[in-house]
Design goal:
Layout: E1 4-12, E2 20-21, E3 25-29, E4 32-37, E5 49-60, E6 62-67, H1 83-95, H2 100-116, E7 119-126, H3 129-139, E8 142-149, H4 154-171, E9 179-185, H5 193-206, E10 210-214, H6 218-228, H7 232-238, E11 246-250, H8 256-264, E12 268-271, H9 273-278, H10 286-292, E13 295-298, H11 311-326, H12 334-340, H13 343-348, E14 366-370, H14 382-388, E15 395-400, E16 403-407, E17 410-411, H15 416-431
Parallel strand pairs: 1-5, 6-7, 7-8, 8-9, 10-11, 11-12, 12-13
Antiparallel strand pairs: 1-2, 1-3, 3-4, 5-14, 14-15, 15-16, 16-17
Helix pairs in contact: 2-3, 2-15, 4-5, 11-12, 12-14
């Protein structure tokens, strides 16, 4: 791989403190940040490529910890509807017509959008995951993938587990480690406890985490209480699910006891404020989860319920919603919101040490934003600007594992014109 030196105007290193430096450079070798500091001692001839960015800011790439990428094909197909009506009357019938090439092109469209918005890694739960993995491999993005599992139909449930094992065998660690796999039981209302026990057994054997929807709506909680006598988080705890490594999406409707369980059992919570608002599901207790010590990250959910994959928008929503809900402007400070979208995301997906931060020895997953925009000036607090003012269109460069995926707003690994054509053609057929 080429040796690349980046000379930006500012570097935000991430982690806990979000240190800002204005006189440092980043040296990248073999996909790793080899040095962060003053690199001017290197002879120019030793560097394959120098990227100048006097008016730019470099920061860790954004991590989207919950989405259904190919659902971009259903963007604005079914809006302004309650969740179960949305699923049963519109989404599930359309999804029944999906084939593997639809999934591939839909995922490529989603990846194009995510790269353009500064997302360098995402967690996906959907169907035909071989083709999702193929899209990830070709595009160069980092991803944690899970086949969606439905256990209420025994035949489909068994087939899904068999397929998941095959996927994990084929794809876990592919792309020089960029692609990792999970098991994806959809939710407690589609995967009863007996089925979840089978999922947990396979997770133990294959040493992979679980990705599940949890406590998304009041109806889900009510149904769980009626059927099992426990709330969703309580039920999952009682069957031992949280003895596994678990990524739990949504977690909107929680009581104090459930928040305590999630924190004590070190469950990774994927907070999806945009989707939860649009579907009318409610507002997750983000501040309470963080105060209890729970590990929280951010996700967009699918573009059929958001309707975009813009992580800068999600981190702004997360911060503003918490402030408004608690009537406390200090509830989620800007640096904490940035942490949710970067290092917390990488940790939520149980990825390698250093991801989500810029530090020596860490994978070179980073983005560069153009500060020569009115909304970034004056430079009183660039962290605050990123949370409260930045837009996806400000992202100018995206790199994953030392490979450039976008530069000067041009996608380098994706034929965007072909992707747009194929996605629109297939979406028309699916929703006709």
């Amino acid at each position: 791989m080429p040796k690349i030196l980046i000379r930006p105007g500012f570097i935000l290193s991430g982690g806990d403190n979000w240190d800002l430096s204005s006189d440092s450079e980043i040296l990248i070798e073999d996909g790793i940040i080899a040095y962060l500091g003053h690199c001017r001692g290197y002879v120019v001839g030793e560097i394959d490529r120098i990227i100048e960015g006097n008016s730019k800011l470099v920061m860790p790439g954004l991590v989207n910890t919950h989405t259904h990428a190919a659902m971009v094909l259903f963007r604005s197909f079914a809006d302004d509807m309650p969740l179960m009506e949305w699923l049963e009357k519109k989404i599930w019938p359309a999804e029944a017509r999906l084939n593997n090439e639809d999934i591939y092109w839909g995922t490529m469209l989603a990846i194009s959008e995510m790269i353009r918005g500064g997302t360098t890694c995402f967690a996906d739960m959907y169907f035909h995951m071989d083709d999702v993995a193929r899209a990830c491999l070709e595009s160069g993005i980092r991803a944690s993938l899970a086949q969606g599992l439905i256990g209420i139909d025994p035949e489909k449930g068994t087939a899904g587990l068999k397929q998941s094992k095959s996927l994990i065998s084929s794809w876990h660690g592919a792309g020089e480690g960029r692609i990792t796999m999970m098991l994806g039981p959809h939710a407690p209302y589609t995967c009863p406890p007996r089925y979840l026990q089978d999922v947990m057994s396979i997770a133990d054997i294959l040493k992979v985490p679980l990705h599940i929807h949890l406590a998304e709506t009041r109806d889900e909680v009510r149904e769980c209480l009626d059927k099992w006598g426990k709330r969703p988080v309580e039920l999952m705890d009682s069957i031992g699910l949280f003895a596994q490594r678990v990524l739990a999406a949504h977690c909107v409707h929680l009581n104090d006891g459930e928040i305590k369980i999630l924190a004590e059992k070190q469950v990774s919570v994927a907070h999806n404020p945009g989707s939860n608002l649009k579907l009318g599901s409610g507002i997750a207790p983000l501040k309470d989860l963080l105060t209890a010590g729970a590990h929280v990250s951010l996700g967009t959910d699918g573009a059929a319920s958001n309707n975009n994959l813009d992580m800068l928008e999600e981190l702004r929503l997360a911060a503003l919603l918490a402030k408004g809900f608690h009537e406390d402007p200090t509830a989620i400070p800007a640096r904490q919101a940035l942490k949710l979208a970067t290092v917390n995301g990488a940790q939520a997906l149980f990825l390698e040490e250093g991801l989500g931060m810029l530090k020596e020895g860490a994978p070179a997953d980073l983005i560069m934003l153009d500060l020569q925009k009115p909304h970034f000036n004056p430079h009183h607090d660039l962290c605050a600007h990123l949370v409260y003012a930045a837009a996806a269109a400000d992202v100018e460069l995206v790199m994953v594992k030392g490979k450039l995926l976008m530069e000067k707003r041009e996608l380098l690994t994706i034929d965007e014109e072909r992707v747009l054509y194929e996605a629109n053609r297939r979406a028309e057929r699916l929703t006709r």
